[in-house]
Specification:
Layout: H1 2-22, H2 32-38, E1 44-45, E2 55-58, E3 70-76, H3 77-80, E4 92-98, E5 103-110, H4 123-127, H5 151-172
Antiparallel strand pairs: 1-2, 2-3, 3-4, 4-5
Length: 180
């Protein structure tokens, strides 16, 4: 009887862990190189934390300087818009955004798109979002380059970048600070 009860308790505990793990889409556990490229002037980064989940980029080490200037935020699109999927699944994109709502950079870290190698994977795709304001329209074929035969992937990645950036801005930025 005790063994049966222990087996049930362990089973319930294990299923809770699986549900917790399934809450978050897997992302790169060591994005430090991307973070440094998004914010080259940053001296320190916070761990991935908060609601919504994000990293904070600092101009000085906040453990040594309580007044360390906050330079901006980095976040995964899959944490903010987990239901946004391309043709074949989520496209894992890390975004850096400053305190005025300007995207500092974008890195497509992982995807399983069949045409991803010529649509969302090339640096040219990600580079077109650098210095784009969250107030821009983000319309494929207008202010975002379209790619023939990969319209679902491009449209999904663009929506993920737009929607997650705007969600972060609503959560952390003053509307008066956001620039076009």
């Amino acid at each position: 009887m005790v063994r049966k009860l222990l087996a049930i308790v362990l089973s319930v505990a294990a299923s809770g862990m699986v549900l917790f793990a399934a809450d978050r889409i897997y992302t790169n556990p060591k994005p430090e190189a991307y973070l440094k490229r998004l914010f080259p002037a940053a001296v320190a980064f916070s761990p991935l934390t908060g609601t919504p989940l994000h990293f904070e980029a600092y101009g000085a080490d906040p453990t040594k300087d309580p007044n360390a200037p906050l330079l901006g935020y980095a976040f995964w699109t899959t944490d903010l818009v987990p239901n946004e999927h391309g043709y074949h699944g989520p496209i894992h994109i890390l975004i850096g955004m400053d305190l005025q709502g300007i995207i500092k950079g974008v890195f497509v870290d992982y995807h399983s798109e069949p045409y991803g190698y010529f649509s969302v994977e090339p640096r040219a795709f990600a580079n077109q979002f650098t210095n784009k304001s969250i107030l821009d329209p983000f319309r494929v074929g207008q202010d975002v380059d379209a790619v023939s035969r990969a319209s679902l992937s491009i449209a999904s990645a663009t929506r993920a970048i737009r929607d997650s950036s705007r969600a972060m801005a609503r959560a952390f930025l003053s509307p008066d600070a956001v620039k076009r």
